[in-house]
Amino acid sequence: MIEAMDIPVIELAHPMPGFPADERFALVRLDDTGVLHGFRSLDSDDLQFVVVPPAPFYPDYAPEIADEVADELGISSDSADDVLVLLVVRAGATLADTTVNLRAPLVVNPATRRASQVILDDVALPLAAPLVA
């Protein structure tokens, strides 16, 4: 059985690229450790992205979120520490082939239940970074 986290319904400020009809998602736990999650569309029955928090894999990852994105999501300087950042996983044939997108994280404000996949300006951040080294 899939457990919903504390954020039952998350509304996207803008649809994710390639999925214009999907604006409502639920974050569901996929493992007992609480690291692996599904970002499941509530608008399409068969759409789910696997996501992970960056800290276990990239502890120094600290994306800079533009002020306009923070405003759209209702993030203030007082609530910035409460923001949830998630990396979208692309499953490979093996764990060694599995990658995460460091260039376009999901940024979630749990207080407003608003989120956005943010495409960062930092071209040094890869679209397909190894999940494990």
From TrEMBL:
It comes from Nocardioides simplex. Gene3D superfamilies: BH3618-like. This is Flagellar assembly factor FliW. Keywords: Bacterial flagellum biogenesis, Cell projection, Chaperone, Cilium, Cytoplasm, Flagellum, Translation regulation. GO terms for cellular component: cytoplasm. SUPFAM superfamilies: BH3618-like. The gene is fliW. It is found in: Cytoplasm. InterPro entries: Flagellar_assembly_factor_FliW (IPR003775), Flagellar_assmbl_FliW_dom_sf (IPR024046). It holds the Pfam family FliW. GO terms for biological process: bacterial-type flagellum assembly; regulation of translation. Belongs to the FliW family. Acts as an anti-CsrA protein, binds CsrA and prevents it from repressing translation of its target genes, one of which is flagellin. Binds to flagellin and participates in the assembly of the flagellum. Interacts with translational regulator CsrA and flagellin(s).
